[in-house]
Amino acid sequence: MTSPEGLLLAMLILPFLGSLTAAFLKPAARTPAWALTWAATLIALGIAAYLYPAVEGRAVLRNEIEWLPSLGLNFLLRLDGLSWIFSILVLGIGALVTLYARYYMSPEDPVPRFFAYLMAFMGSMLGLVLSGNLIQLAFFWELTSLFSFLLIGYWHHNQSARDAARMALIATAAGGLCLLLGVLLIGKIVGSYDLDRVLASGDLIQSSDLYLPALILILLGAFTKSAQFPFHFWLPHAMAAPTPVSAYLHSATMVKAGVFVLIRLWPVLAGTDAWYFIVSTTGLLTLLIGAWAAIFQQDLKGLLAYSTISHLGLITLLLGLGSPLAAVAAIFHAVNHATFKASLFMAAGIIDHETGTRDLRSLSGLYRFMPITATLAMVAAAAMAGVPLLNGFLSKEMFLSASLAEHSGTIIDQALPALATLASAFAVLYSLRFIHQTFFGPAPQGLPRIPGEAPHWMRVPIEILVVACLLVGILPAMTIGPYLATAVHSVLGDATPAYSLAVWHGFNPPLFMSIAALGLGTGAYLLFRKTLNRQDGAPLIRRLKGRKIFEASLAAIVDTARALERLLGTRRLQPQLRLLVVVALLAGLLPFTRLGYGLGDHQGTVVDPGFAVVWMIGGACAIGAAWLAKYHRLAALILTGGAGLVCCITFLWLSAPDLALTQLLVETVTTVLLLLGLRWLPIRAEEVWPGGRAASVTLRRAIDLTIAVAAGLGMTLIAYAVMTRPLPGSVSRFFVERAYPEGGGTNVVNVILVDFRAFDTLGEVTVLAIVALTVFALLRRFRPAQESVGAPAQQRVQNAIDEAREGRQVGDTLKDYLLIPRVIMEWLFPVIMVFAIYLWIRGHDMPGGGFAAGITLSIALIVLYMASGTRRVEARLRVQPARWIGFGLLLALLTGMGAWLFGHPFLTSYFGYLDLPIVGKVPAASALLFDLGVFLIVVGATALILIAIAHQSIRRPSASILRQQALEQGEG
Amino acid sequence: MGYSLVLTLPEIILSASAIALLMVAAFAGDKAARLSTWLAVLAFIGAALVVPGVTGPGGIAFNGLFVADSFAAFAKILIYVAAAIAMLSAMSWFARDGVYRTEYPVLILLSSVGMGMMASAGDLITLYVGLELQSLAAYVLASFQRKDSRSAEAGLKYFVLGALASGILLYGVSLLYGFSGSTSFEGIAAAIATDGISTGELFGIVFVLAGLAFKVSAVPFHMWTPDVYEGAPTPVTAFFASAPKVAAMALLTRVTIEALGAATFEWRQIVIFMALASTILGGVAAIGQQNIKRLLAYSSINNVGFALIGLAAGTPEGVASVLFYMTVYVVMTLGTFFVVLRMRDEAGQPVETIVSLSGLSRTRPALAAAMAMFMFSIAGIPPLMGFWPKFYVFEAAVAANLTWLAAVGIATSVIGAFYYLRIIKVMYFDDPAPAFEARRDLVSSAVILAAALFVSPLGWFALEPLGTASLNAAGALF
Fold first, then answer.
1. Cystine design at A496: which of A446, A492, B47, B449 (Cβ 3.0–4.6 Å)?
2. DSSP assignment, residue B59?
3. What whole-number distance in Å separates Cα of residue A684 and Cα of residue A431?
4. Mean of pLDDT over chain A
5. Helix ranges (DSSP H) in A405-494
6. DSSP assignment, residue A131?
């Protein structure tokens, strides 16, 4: 760790380490927390100072640690002249602020937490200036946003602190994301995020198409952070933070981060027209607006805040000008501003601390109470105003001479000297007001506290900073000179201009401008000082309240969000379904618009009129079923059956008798089972529309109908387009060719089911068995709804007739009801059974098979149940579906396993023909046994479901329903 | 065949465990619920452990129906771990109301088998079977508290809408098959590559993507998410927000890259639209929410949008960023939901309003700190882990010349930060609401702590392995 690289890393880690340790201290541990923080900062500062030789003469100290090799990204610490001088500022002022905060923070505050945040912030800022790659820079950038949020919101019992913290975080973190995107673009242009490579690729970047977007994004980041107009609004509100925080964030760190990035990337980004116009205009506007607003502040810290904005604008303007000399001035002023502004904030903090107020109008004549603080503040304010022999003067002089040079040949060139002088005059004016209003005049009246000098150690930081201002101001070349030169060289390299840091440059235009500004500012103060105290906010730009705009836009976002939710959000299922269908419909339209609608090569056959009529009937049935589904379930079901029948006829028409047979049987069974189930559905409630059905309802239904028709049409069109194209190579040819030679059957479907794909069939019938058992299990305990428990209307009528007539018992009519059909249906049972067996046996060669046979036998059972009633059937016939299923499964399985006896794989089949007496030649494949298994399972499954439904009608209703009924009868 | 069975070993372990636990459920009843849950966790651990083993060489099972490559392995491990953790949250939560049932771990296991198949699908048929297996179990889970009308409603809604979406998906599947002549991803890719894209295939792509968009809850197929998240029991919501999201995203990625790689131009437009709409709507709509579960639902929509930005890039880096995003998202979201699960008032009743978090920093400082970390992390603020996935996604988008998409993403993440910060503000700055009941729950505390550590800067240690693994996994698709 003692190598320069190791020390560099240690310097960065120290603040974070301090932060982590402080975070775990007890809230009452004030002194340990402070001592820890201070020690860590001082050590880091010592390291930074020690590392100076490593950066002298444009040398660069790099410490690269593998970080994310998968992204080609390394954690890279890079120390050069510029980052060295900023490190010294961050750590040096950090150390002073820490010392100051020890005396400033009140005993009630949980101080360790404060120091933990402060240290973490310091570390983030240090990480930012030491970043050797751009991603890392953006990363630490966001870290500073996060910790500044915590610092500004430290007094969270204070509403304005909370708002300010949130505002600062949203503004600067959003800017940080822009910066991230900007550096991603830079990385894309350069092919690397390494700062050294980026800095060497200036031409590449400026000639890229992505230059402008990258520039704008990076500038957005820098401007939000450095509180440039129009993003300056968060800074004045951040004054709700404890003063040490303001002194730190708004002098050396947070707001300097934006400026730092601009300086860092100046060599590669500056020099274009876009850079010039955007950056210098923003800087100029910020400079003037900040200074103008600062004049009219009544809050001590508010005045300093706006002056900070103004000075940041000045630095931005200098960078925007694009000339190397201006860049030197920018770097120099960034350093100077940090020193005098930190001391002024601390002085303001002392005044606030000692008097209990920061209102300029209540303060007056404090000089007699705190002469030392007053003197220090005066010197620092003079530096801010640009009074000679102070550091502020030197950099302002450089600024004024830069403003005289020609940069773009536009109107800005002519206006700049005058505006620069004006801004300097504003600076003189507000500095004067700050000093005069606070320290001079009569003794203050009605202060919350009797003021006095602050503790000596609280003043020490200010003293050090003020001495620095003076030393730099008087002996610039001997103090800051070499360090500034190192920093400037590290940025500008060979382009470094000749500049002079002397106090006296002779009588030249900048000096006259300085004198003019001093005179103008003093004169204006003397003239307007009384008026200023009456002002409530700055004239001209009073309306321009960034905070209001910010809050209004937040409110607008929230309102829009709520409105959007009201408009689009719904918890109702129907609109959600509608949306889903409509979006799918629209999505379906997209390919149409792009590729058009085209049919395949297949020629359509001429439609037989008879077939067309059949289909029209089928279509009418389907529409009728859909229409009636809500109003008349029975009719709808019968119509569905009609549509199904048309389907069967279609299969026959198109020469698929086996399909037709299966379809017919399945249709019959499902329709009957559904009919049986209908009874247990609740009675449909009548539609009630008090005052007639609203037009909106009709409209909605019409829209729904349109959507449905459109979706249906779309599907039809697509299906039609598919069917006019050749079929993809299917497996059917394979099966057709091999069905007889390899499966020994001519009914291909059956051969597939029981031979080629017998394993699948085994699985399917197993599932069928499970489903049947599940349905039975579910319906076994099912108790129908109360309203459907009573006898059906028809039975009630019949019973009423029986009761009314003499000589008849209740139930007589029912007993004889449909007697003849019943007898016929009972007689049909054996016939259908024989037919089923016939289907089973012929299945291998002809339409039929185990499945069809099973369904057929189920129909026989259903007919029997319907004709004779559950009790009667079960008294005469042993119906044990579960056993049938079990036996069928075993049979199928054993048949399959039988193949093993002959040394063949599972389910290999043997086939041949058997000559039976009377019946004749029948196919006798081993698959027939397998098919018998299928047969049994299908019958069993259907019968099991049937029984589950049938038993509902003979089951006693649940006890609660019976009680209910008894109650109702009692009442009746 | 034998090799195929080896490749599907994780699925076999989970299916066998599900069946075995179902028997336990049938015969031992709800007494065995806790035991079954822990056994199911063991099954998940076992399955996750064998995943790298069987996918070591990478292989294709059942004639291309099932792919066991490093992409599937990455997704599966994430899915299994997430599912196991989400399942653990259910035990104590349901037990409080006396309705924890042994079926719960069984359903989670079955759903996870489906999710594993989704990640491994190499064929439209596998895709559908996996999807439905996952969904059917999920429908039941959503209505697990069937006596609670909200839960029942959530289940029904999810089922009806999910069935409709499945229908749309199937329609697309049949069109893709009809026009390309193949159901295998490889075959479809070959057909598109040789003949160019036909109208029918384009239809197929549109409908398949629409169906999958429903599963990842991307706008405009997101409507169910807030309702289901709010209505379903919170442990179920935690599950929905984690593992199934990963599975659906993995499936979407595999379909777009593997089957439709040659039609990148076509599907990219759709994915970009979904990404934009999801990030914007998810971000904006979350602002007005009062219920934390609804808010997290919109947050998940927003986050899915971000992951889709990575997918839109269509490059290996883009796919890697999707995997990376989902990994970090799952950790953050599980952590958040475990905090939400702790939200019960003095009487032990669950509370879900954001207001009830007021002043949590004073009543339960540790819980508030963890929640604050999750919120900052989801907002993507460094140094927390949540920054990285966004960074990866944006980088992939910029590298694929989709800068403007990344820019919109950034704008919406600022909107997103707004409501995450609101929760932090409520917890730290507002006057305390009635305190939550204090109850020790070792499992939940451990999960919250682990998730918090992962999103903290300590998670950086995971950055590099995760980055390498996701790149490696993404490479399997190209």
1. A492
2. E
3. 85
4. 85
5. 411-439, 456-474, 481-492
6. B
Of A895, A888, A902, the closest CA to residue A939 belongs to A888
Distance from CA of B266 to the nearest CA of A (A): 10
- Of B224, B413, B415, which has the smallest distance from its Cβ to A576's Cβ? B224
Structural tokens at position A888: 């069928």
Euclidean distance between CA atoms B462 and B400, whole angstroms: 26
Q: Choose among A328, A173, A469: nearest CA to B382.
A: A173
Distances (CA, A) of B287 to A173, B227, B237, B314: 18, 16, 20, 31
Mean predicted confidence (pLDDT) in B161-184: 90
Which secondary structure element, helix H or strand E, spans residue A64, and what is its range? Answer: strand A61-68
Query: Is residue A123 within 8 angstroms of chain B, CB to CB?
Result: no
Contact across the interface for A595 and B179, Cβ inside 8 Å: no
Question: Furthest-apart CA pair in chain A: how many Å?
Answer: 140
Which residue in the set A139, A140, A184 is minimally distant from B394, CB to CB? A184
- E-strand ranges in A817-927 read 913-916, 920-923
Question: How many CB pairs lie under 8 A apart between chains A and B?
Answer: 167
User: B408: closest CA among B339, B335, B325, B306?
Assistant: B306
User: Which residues lie below 8 Å from residue A222, measured CB to CB, with a gap of 6+?
Assistant: A175, A179, A228, A258, A259, A261, A262
Contact B220 A583 (CB under 8 A): yes
What is the pLDDT at residue A958?
63
Q: Are A554 and B418 inside 8 Å of each other by CB?
A: yes
- If you search the block for the tokens 């240090």, which residue do you land on? A126
Q: Evaluate if residue B1 carries a pLDDT over 60.
A: no
Kind and range of the H or E element at A177?
helix A159-190
| pLDDT band (50, 70, 90) for residue B79 | very high
Residue pLDDT, tens place only, A853-889: 998 998 898 888 888 888 888 888 888 888 999 999 9
With contact defined as beta carbons under 8 Å apart, do A145 and A51 qualify?
no
Q: Does A962 score more than 70 pLDDT?
A: no
Q: Return the percentage of chain A with pLDDT > 90, whole number.
A: 20
Does residue A414 sit at the B interface (CB-CB below 8 Å)?
no
Residues A900 and A102: their CA atoms lie apart, in Å, by 91
Domain residues of chain A, as ranges?
Answer: 18-269, 283-539, 747-972
Residues in B 36-95 with any Cβ partner in A closer than 8 A? none
Distance CA B299, CA B287 (A): 10
CA nearest to A302, candidates A430, A485, A170, A121: A430
Q: What is the pLDDT of residues A547-581, one digit of tens each?
A: 777 778 778 877 887 887 777 777 888 888 888 88
Query: Look-up: residue for tokens 């508030």?
Result: B368
Please report, to the nearest 10 degrees, the dihedral formed by the alpha carbons of residues A184, A186, A191, A197 taken in order.
-120
> Chain B within 8 Å of A178 (Cβ-Cβ)?
yes
By the 10 Å C-beta count (0-12 exposed, 13-18 middle, 19+ buried), A834 is classed as exposed
Express each pLDDT in A43-85 by its tens digit: 999 999 999 988 888 888 888 888 777 777 788 899 998 999 9
The residue among B158, B279, B391 with the most chain A CBs within 10 A of its CB, best to mutate, is B391
Q: What are phi and psi of A206, to 5 degrees?
A: -70, -20
Query: Quick count: other Cβ atoms within 10 Å of Cβ B228?
Result: 28
Alpha helices in B181-291 (DSSP H): 185-195, 199-216, 224-231, 234-241, 243-254, 264-287
A596 at interface of B, judged by CB pairs closer than 8 A: yes
d(CA A620, CA B155): 35
ipTM: 0.86
Q: Per-residue pLDDT averaged across B199-226, rounded?
A: 89
3-state helix, strand and coil shares in percent for chain A, rounded to the nearest 5: 75, 5, 25
Q: Given CB atoms, is B185 within the 8 Å cutoff of chain A?
A: no
What's the confidence (pLDDT) of residue B198?
81
Query: Residue A922, SS3?
Result: strand
Is A166's CB within 8 Å of B421's CB? yes
